[in-house]
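Hello, quick one for you while I still have it in my head. My current little project is about how a certain protein chain folds up. You're getting the sequence in one-letter code plus the fold written as tokens. Would you mind checking whether the tokens look sensible for this chain? Here's the protein in full, and shout if anything looks odd to you:
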Amino acid sequence: MLVRVFGDSVAVSVQQQSPQQQVSPPDNETLHRLAVEAAGYLGIETGDPLPINEIVEQGVANGYDEPDIRSLIREQYDAAQTIAVPPQGNIFGEMWRVEEETESQVESKVGEVEDGTIAQFREWLEERSNNDKTHSYTRKKANRRFAQAKDVDRNFIREYDSFLTILITYTKQRKTDQSLADHADSFYPRKITRKRRRILKNEGAYADAAIVSVLAPKFADEVPYSNAPTTHAHDFIWIPDTIEQECFKRLEQIEDFEVDVSIQHHISEEVETPSSVLVRGSGMDRQRGDTTSLPQELGNNIPLLSFSFDARGAPEYIEKWCAHIRAGTDNLFETKGISRYRKLGTFDKRADAEKARRRIRSGYVDAQALFSELEYHIQSTQKTGTDGNEANAGTNTAEQETDPEKEAESESNKSRFTFTKPNKTEPNFEFSANPTGDQ
């Protein structure tokens, strides 16, 4: 007899006992897991008959479509009404497999490796700091990357009447026997980069596209060690052309990855800096111009942007993630580690163009200020000289008329400072190049 409670009502069903069926675990891992979960909910032991409908209900409760679950059942059990409850075994796949070592032993070994890697990372940071050697695990580098992304955004606003920003997010399960570095290094395989490039080329957007690919840490909410960091990845893409979200469906079909694509269309003259940036009171952002939300999302995935000096001032899980990324798959700090920030396409050219434009404009403003200051001093000097001449007009008129050397000197002094009238209109610093680049 099976009893289920639904609110205030009780449903009772009686099922005849039958001889224990031959236990044959489902070939499909999803079906296996749903069968074990349904049996556990109903209190049915391994080997006892489990109604097919209970598996279907369990699948629907887990977010699956009923036709999909029934199709899986038909593939293995045809028209059977019940199946034997399979043993639990490895129902959660390789990630939850219980090896000969206990979980506490595995955690202990992982902890020892991580502690050693973090200690080496801190020593490496200290050595670089003491010897004034640059590296990318500093807030200064994070600020520069964030500023470049905003400059690229402003370049698209300046160059095009409208454009698109695309955010692609990749997530991938980390297994218990997989190191943090190995997991991070598995992102951006050729099957992803090739498909991404082919999509942009087919849509005619590849030549002008600016792209940044970023690895970033996050809390590990899907692995046994809840305090262990894991990795996810993003593509940040700017293109001047129109492209449909359906074009990226091929990326969503890549095995082992969950892919989410978000596309926004922007009218350049209507772009306004997100309110979250204005609240932070960035005077420099106001001065340099508005941006879309894409650079801000990139900034949210640069982990050292909000912390002091270098990774040693970051929260524990970020410092741990940085340590393993820097150590790389070989766990050696003498090598380059894992690349976590890749600039592709026209990104660098556009960022450099905006920086050059800003410098030229700054030089022009400084020159105008210097001209105004010199003009003021010249006028003051001339006025002082005129007042003095008027006061001594009665005593040296004859001398001035008869001293040609002083007249020549006066004329010479005047000729040294000959200026045109200042231009009150700022010059146009538009850059006409539509840069191209290759990944």
Q: What stands out?
A: The chain has a mean pLDDT of 75.
